[in-house]
């Protein structure tokens, strides 16, 4: 049994604050044996960097988008916080960049994506209910730009979009319906009777 939201990922202008819903396992279907939760993040950034120094400068420039996840389901939220559920997206301009006096350079769009996978066996009791149901996962972003070098003379403009998604996969052993088991038993009775007549 699989439940997902936000896949494929749709990006929007940061900072994002988005919530999606996943299904709880319906315990009427069978015995839950394993759960895997996958969290996804993707982002795109465009940078404009201007050198205001009176000399040429060199710098290494990296954009960052940190996506943090929480859940309305308390045991899952605790697990996510304790396991460091952040997805860190890094947007690199590709090594050390040189800027002439007064030069403005544009970078991007730079895109990247990442994901985290969690085994939820330790909270399997909390991930199921008769008839199912659902729970939410919230994702928020924090974006920034790191400039190493440039002597403090590089000004920047950054435009970033980001998006998230999630998928949960339940593995379970189905419980045969009572009527099916009864029919199978009744179908075997004539065979047993025939064997006895022989």
Question: Summed up, what is this model?
Answer:
This protein has 198 residues and is mainly beta.
Arithmetic mean of pLDDT = 90
Round the Cα radius of gyration to an integer and report it: 27 Å
Number of domain units = 1
Helix content: 10-25%
Our measurement of the CA-to-CA distance between the termini, rounded to an integer number of angstroms, reads 47 Å
Keywords:
single chain, 198 residues, mainly beta, 5-stranded antiparallel sheet, 2 helices, 11 strands, 15% helix, disordered C terminus
Topology of this structure?
Elements (H helix, E strand, L loop, with lengths): L1 E4 L6 E2 L3 E7 L1 E2 L3 E22 L5 E15 L2 H9 L4 E13 L4 E16 L8 E2 L4 E16 L4 E21 L3 H20 L1
Parallel strand pairs: 4-9
Antiparallel strand pairs: 1-11, 2-11, 3-10, 5-8, 5-11, 6-7, 6-10
